[in-house]
Amino acid sequence: MAQDGYTGAETTGFVSPASDHLEGPIDLSEVLDLRRPNRYPVRVLGEALIDRGILPGDVLIADAAADPRPGAVAIVMLHGEVLVAQLAHKRGQWWLRPGRRDQPAVPVSEDMTLWAVVAALVRERV
């Protein structure tokens, strides 16, 4: 039996007083602003930022037009390889901080292209 959306009328027991405040269906494309030409969903394959709470299988919403900022997660291209790291800015230079604390920060070099800054994260399974 297909339903268009949850209205609260199908509950058993008592009617929730919050039913007056139910919002309609959530359009993730709108919430995540995916209609903008510079926004891209990117699936995480590795565990590079697991300490930051970004897990394999998560979907990052990358914004290729966003300005870099310290603490943001960035997607960087290096010799055709895609890297995901946290940005840091010190002494006038951008650095990539891996998610694992046992790895040192790496200065952003001319070989690297800062492709996008992560604007959001989508997790399919909780």
Automatic annotation (TrEMBL):
The regions listed as transmembrane in this protein's record are none
Recorded hits in Pfam families, A to Z, give: Peptidase_S24
Peptidase S24/S26A/S26B/S26C domain location is 10-117
The UniProt annotation puts the region (Disordered) at 1-20
> Which InterPro entries does the UniProt entry name for this protein?
LexA-like, LexA/Signal_pep-like_sf, Peptidase_S24_S26A/B/C
| Superkingdom as given in the UniProt entry | Bacteria
Q: Spell out the protein name for this chain.
A: Error-prone repair protein UmuD
Q: Name the species this protein comes from.
A: Teichococcus rhizosphaerae
Q: What is the lineage of its organism?
A: Bacteria, Pseudomonadati, Pseudomonadota, Alphaproteobacteria, Acetobacterales
